[in-house]
Amino acid sequence: MKEFKHISVTDTFTRLQQGEIVIVDIRDEQSFSAAHIDGAFHLTNGTLLQFTQQHDFEQPVVVVCYHGNSSQGAAQYLVQQGFEEVYSMDGGFEGWRHNFPHVSSAE
Question: What are the residue ranges in the chain where pLDDT is below 50?
Answer without folding.
Answer: none
